[in-house]
Amino acid sequence: MPKPLSSTQIFLGGLWNDNPVLRQILGICSTLAVTNLLVNTLVMNAGLIFTVCMSSLTVSILRNYTPMKIRMMTQTLIIASYVIMVDIAISAYLPDISEALGPYVGLIITNCIVMGRCEAYAKNNGPWPAFLDGLAMSLGYAAVLLVIAIIREPLGFGTLLGYRIMPEGFTPWTIMIMAPGAFFTLGLFAWFVRAKFPQTAEEKK
Amino acid sequence: MKKRLYSIAFMFVLTFVFAAVVSAVKGYNEERIQTNQQVKLQRIILKVLGVPLDEKAPNQEVVQAFQKRVKPIEVKKRTLYVAYAEDGRRITGYALPVGGSGFWGPVYGMVSVDPEASKILGLAFYKHSETPGLGARITEPWFVKQFAGLPLFPMEGDKKIFYLKPAGPGKGANELDAVTGATGTSRAVEAFLNRDLDRFLRETWKSVKKG
Questions:
Q1: Secondary structure (H, E, C), B51-103
Q2: Does residue B54 lie within any of the structural domains?
Q3: Total domains, chain B
Q4: Which residue range(s) make up the domain with B203?
Q5: pLDDT 10s digits, B131-165
Q6: Measured between CB atoms, which of B21, B33, B36 is closest to A81?
Q7: Which of A24, A173, B56, B106 has a CA positioned 20 to 30 A from the CA of residue B62?
């Protein structure tokens, strides 16, 4: 049994060393889909943070009672329940954003980060470290999405959080609103981080 | 054997607990979600009927305006929204729900016609799953505004009221611009809008005129 990680190590891992989006390239689908408007990104981030933390916590609490053979089924059930709750809450209180996010809230369930953390960490660790790990990983995800949204919204719409920030004569780059713009931004960002701050042997080459 | 029974019992209990919690959350918020959807529809109806309303007006204002200016009626099992002028007596138009299969999934919209059903006043789509940036451009102002003032005269033969043609100059009064790059969506919209409008003129409108 390896020595348990300290809270600082957990947070450093989620936010930087093992950042789910930049280092592990997980959760790309939603990263590309919801980052053309900052407000959508914020809501998506909140939904994911809630889901990852609560799923990790629940999986960890049940870890000593869950039969090994049906653990995946159990995790799926737990994650799905939390995602549906998020979906209901958003459509009840933020109907416009619910519309804009469309199927992507429901698709949090397929976000590899959620099940990945349950399987890789929560099922072998106590509830508190599992919760922290979920928080750190989802914050790492959220941070990357924020950076991408802050690049995409001003260039694509000329606004940030709906407020005009680009000069009057600015022509919006339509490509930044669409999927290719997200691919370029994410690709360049991940490349920059990995080249500038290499972590693994492969990155250091 | 014992292990298996335990697994089944474990999964059963867990599913039961989570299903109960999710149902409770849903039940608690159901009314709110319903209201949201209703208000959204009312906003669309007011918009196509040309009732002035701030786009960011709070829900309560929308409901009030709707109650004051619009009356839903049932004609031949189809809902028709009748709009009245400020005085509450003169009819300013009718709105009817339209919809059909788009390119990827169902498309829902609302069309309004003038009190004589001689031309279209407005059109809006409020639910669809067309490709963003391509088919989804049917919701953009340049597209829906083309329909305002379109005469409701079905052509001889194919019964069509309008045609969507590739954007360009030199077109007839009933030929509107299609969405470039979204031929599938444009064809679908042309098909179901013509169908629904033709049905309105032939069936619903006749009953309305009779009173």
A1: CCCCCCCCHHHHHHHHHHHEEEEEECCEEEEEEECCCCCCEEEEEEEEEEECC
A2: yes
A3: 1
A4: 43-210
A5: 766 788 898 889 999 999 898 888 877 888 899 98
A6: B21
A7: B106
Paired residues of B122 in beta bridges: B112
| Residue B204 amino acid letter | T
**Assigned domain for B167 exists:** yes
Residue A50: inside a domain, yes or no? yes
What is the tens place of the pLDDT at every residue in A32-82? 888 888 988 999 999 999 999 999 999 999 999 999 999 999 999 999 999
Residues 44-103 of B with CB under 8 A from A: none
Q: Tokens for A159?
A: 């606004």
B32 within some domain: no
Look at A77 and B29 and tell me if their CB atoms are within 8 Å: no
Q: How many domains does chain A have?
A: 1
Domain membership of residue A70 as a residue range: 7-142
Q: In terms of pTM, does the model score above 0.80?
A: no
ipTM comes to 0.81
Domain-embedded: residue B78: yes
Q: Provide the 10 A C-beta neighbour count for residue A89.
A: 18
A32 contact residues in B (CB cutoff 8 A) = none
Q: Is the minimum CB–CB distance between B40 and chain A shorter than 8 Å?
A: yes
